[in-house]
Amino acid sequence: MMRAADALCGVYPDLNRDLLLTGVLVHDCGKLWENSYPKMGFQQSVDLHGEMLGHIPIGIELTNKLWHEIAESDEAQAWADLQPATDQVRLHLLHLIASHHGQLDFGSPIVPRIPEAFALHYIDNLDAKLEMVKDSYANAAEITDGIYERTFPLPAGLIRPLPAFEPPPKPEPENAGEQSTGHPEDETEEEWLE
């Protein structure tokens, strides 16, 4: 998700890169309590905070607490005059955590209201969907040539994807041993374009 967010900032330079990358880093930090796994084994334990609050409110609480602890440190005094103001940055970061599911009916207490929140939501969603697709290709039964059975929660069975395009190897020019004069009329179109 970090690489996707960084690449997206290159395409959409108006996005606040620092805010978006920080949002990617912390948006699911509450899952440390909601989805708690033991060191040995795969059975998820049940945590009272995770069950009663869920990872979004826990993530907001944790990030807010850590932010205030850092803000009270001696080092943070040097940040007092930074713009945008530190408290505004904190509020925007909390909004990213709160809205990253993108919809109220998907568990977000608020919908995205800033560009970075929309970007985070779609990056998170795309990452989750592509992981589901990868897992489905690895585990779903192929019901006929190139068609796989549906794997929940994907909406339909997958179809075998096309392989990446690989251009054919370039043929050796007939006059490979001759020196080019550098004039376009002495070269093939492909050689000239290179």
Note down, in words, how this protein is organized.
With 194 residues, this protein is mainly alpha-helical. Helix content is 47%, strand content 3%. Helix 2 crosses helix 6.
Per DSSP E runs of 2 or more residues, the count of β-strands stands at 2
Indicate the low-confidence ranges by residue numbers. none
Number of helices: 8
Determine the oligomeric state from the structure: single chain
The biggest beta sheet, please? 2 strands, antiparallel
Overall geometric form: extended
Mean pLDDT: 88
Helix content: 40-55%
Structural class: mainly alpha
Spatial order of the strands forming the largest sheet: 1-2
Query: What amount of the residues lies in strands?
Result: under 5%
- What's the gyration radius in Å? 25 Å
State the end-to-end CA separation.
35 Å
H/E element order: HHHHHHHEEH
